[in-house]
Structure formats: C-alpha cells, structure tokens
Design a protein that fits this description.
This protein is an alpha+beta fold. It has one domain (about 1-205): Thiolase/Chalcone synthase (Peroxisomal Thiolase, Chain A, domain 1, 3-Layer(aba) Sandwich). Helix content is about 35%, strand content about 20%. The chain contains seven helices and nine strands, in the order βββααβααβαβαβαββ. The protein has helices at about 20-30, 35-45, 55-60, 65-90, 115-120, 140-155, 180-185; strands spanning about 1-5, 10, 15, 50, 100-105, 130-135, 160-165, 190-200, 205. The strands form two sheets. Strands 1, 2, 5, 6, 7, 8 and 9 form a seven-stranded mixed sheet that branches. Strands 3-4 form a two-stranded antiparallel sheet. Strand 5, helix 5 and strand 6 form a beta-alpha-beta unit. The protein is elongated. The two termini are about 35 Å apart. The model has no long low-confidence stretch (mean pLDDT about 95).
C-alpha cells in the first residue's frame, strides 16, 4: 500500500495583506458597478495575507505573456529545487531513488516541461519518467496523488515525486473587470509544494484507493 509522505511547502517573500488588496481594488476599480460586491466577497474569503513571487507594484504592470512566462520559468528554477530537497528528506529517499516525477502547474508554461530541467539539474536518474499535468486548476494536486498511487500500484516498490508550482500572481489581467477576476485577485497567492509517494516504506497517510468524477456540465466553473 502506497504512503503519502510529509510534504514540503515554500512561499515567496513578497507579502500582500487583505488591506493591501482592498485598497488596490478601491483605487483601480473606483468606478466599477460591482465594486462593493467584489470588496465584500474579498473580505469574506478569510484570506488575511498572501505571498507573491515579485513585488506587487511589478505584478500590476503587465508586460505581456512572453515576459510573464519568462518570469515563471526563472522563479520556478530558483524556488523548486530547495522544496524538492526538503520533500526527499521528509520521505527518506534520494533523488536517484525517484522513478517518476509528476509536475503540476496551470500558471506557467515550459517546453520541455520543468521535469526535464529537474532531471538535468538535480541528481535524478536520466531514466526517470516524467508526467507534467496542466489545466486542472485546483484539482491538479489531487489528480497528481491519484496518478502517483496508480503508478505505485503497478510498480509496488516505486517512489513518485509530486511537485506543485503555482504562481497565480503572474496570471493577473488588468483588463479583466469581471467580478470573478476581482475576487481571484484577492484570493490566490504563490507557492511551491512537493511530496513523495512511496510504494513501500515511508511515514504518512496510506493510500488505499483513488477515483475521479467530473460533475456534468461544470467545466466552465474552473474560470
């Protein structure tokens, strides 16, 4: 039975408080017809503070997708390896003992995947399998655990590394004035997390089974 080992999590150094978010929304969207609703929703989230990869003033300037994606790659390469090292230590395994790397992100794009860079940069075997997962939003972490469990069921002695890297601040769109986007700007932060699923050994929750279910006609909700 596979074991989900203790995760490692790291957040960036740039703090954004709820007060910062509310003040910014009031200044930038002063004439928005649904501003009061957006402010009320932001207050009700309970998210008192968030952390982002670049200072807020820089995030507010949108230099275009190419520049934003370059920032994603730069920050991911800087912030992901230390989190992976901590997760490997938590699981009691070395990089060379990892059989599959699952990398989860829907807030940046790299071609080839970050998994290839990790294998070339850290001490993973060059035969390590790669599984990038994108476009699943908040459900991607759970899906990654499911796929890791599937792999360990097929290969009971395997070790699977899961890495989640989400820099939501880089997806800020100043021209999107929908209430949902205003709410998202006050809800999401940036972080990197990693964990190891071990087919044998390890300490943590035991994964007995997994499943997946899509509620019909709800795909638009992810936006």
């Amino acid at each position: 039975m596979a074991t989900l080992c203790k995760p490692a999590v790291a957040v960036p150094e740039n703090l954004v408080t709820m007060a910062d978010t509310l003040d910014l929304a009031e200044r930038i969207h002063a004439g928005h017809p649904q501003l009061d609703l957006a402010l009320r929703l932001i207050r009700n989230t309970g998210v008192r503070s968030r952390y982002i990869v670049r200072p807020l003033a820089e995030i507010m300037r949108h230099p275009g997708f190419q520049a934003r994606n370059a920032i994603f790659e730069e920050e991911a390469k800087r912030r992901v390896p230390p989190v992976i090292s901590a997760a490997l230590d938590n699981a009691g395994v070395a990089a060379a003992q990892i059989d599959l790397i699952i990398f989860v992100s829907c807030t940046g794009f790299m071609m080839p995947s970050m998994t290839a860079w990790l294998i070339n940069t850290m001490d993973f075997r060059h035969s390590t399998k790669q599984l990038p997962i994108a476009q699943l939003g908040c459900a991607a972490g759970a899906s990654a655990i499911n796929r890791a469990h599937d792999y360990c069921m097929a290969y009971p002695e395997a070790n699977v590394l899961i890495v989640a890297c989400e820099f939501c601040s880089l997806c800020y769109q100043p021209t999107d004035l929908a209430v949902g986007n205003l709410l998202a700007n006050g809800l999401f932060g940036d972080a990197v997390a990693a964990t190891v699923v071990r087919g044998q050994g390890g300490v943590g929750p035991r994964l007995e089974c997994n499943t997946s279910y899509l509620i019909p006609d709800t795909e638009r909700w992810i936006g």
